[in-house]
Amino acid sequence: MPSPRSYIEQLKRLLDELDAEALDRLTDLLEECWRTERRVLLVGNGGSAATASHIVNDLQKCIQLESGQALKAMCLADCAALVLAWANDTTYDNVFAPQVECWAEPGDLLIAISGSGNSANVLRAVEAARARGARSFGLAGFMGGELATAADECLIVGSTNMQQIEDVHMVILHLVFSSLRDRVRRQH
User: Fold this and answer.
1) CB of 111 within 8 A of CB of 177?
2) CA gap 93, 123 in Å, rounded
3) What is the pLDDT along the chain (188 residues), one digit of tens a residue?
4) Which CATH class is domain 19-187?
5) At a CB cut-off of 8 Å and minimum separation 6, what does 153 contact?
6) d(CA 99, CA 109)
7) Where do the structural domains in the chain lie, given as residue ranges?
8) Which distant-in-sequence residues (6+ apart) come within 8 Å of 89 by Cβ?
9) Hey, which end of the chain has fewer CB within 10 Å, N or C?
10) 156: left (phi over 0), alpha (psi -120 to 50) or beta
11) pTM for this structure?
């Protein structure tokens, strides 16, 4: 178990290694969705679901408060009854794909979060997004897993520590939200 100091030092290293160009591209995708009134769908399991749910607060509410126009963002893990119904009546691998099929349209964006990069239900959501003409941006850890090649683009946190991967995923999403908010402010 790492000491608090070594945990912090490892986090600093992971943050220093983030691809700034990929962060800008994700911000660009979010801005395009906001400008064209497209949807941003987010998926993830466990801590990644919590991250996806959390960032919807910022993406939807804060952007609307800044501009008067919401970014149409939603976390597909937020409706426990629907997730459990799909899991019970089909398989857990299928809890997100039917929701993507319901909501995604061409030009929309799916942000797929998987610490391992190998969550079957997240990968199926990416496939469903592609079939519907939506783009996908993955956030993964480890070596990126299957998400690294399944998503249109994937930002990989190069760690094998799931908690640090999840920490950095939240920082990534807060960074791109903050960049988007700054862009929106300059326009109004």
Assistant:
1) no
2) 9
3) 679 999 999 999 999 999 999 999 999 999 999 999 999 999 999 999 999 999 999 999 999 999 999 999 999 999 999 999 999 999 999 999 999 999 999 999 999 999 999 999 999 999 999 999 999 999 999 999 999 999 999 999 999 999 999 999 999 999 999 999 999 998 87
4) alpha beta
5) 22, 25, 26, 136, 137, 138
6) 13
7) 19-187
8) none
9) N
10) beta
11) 0.97
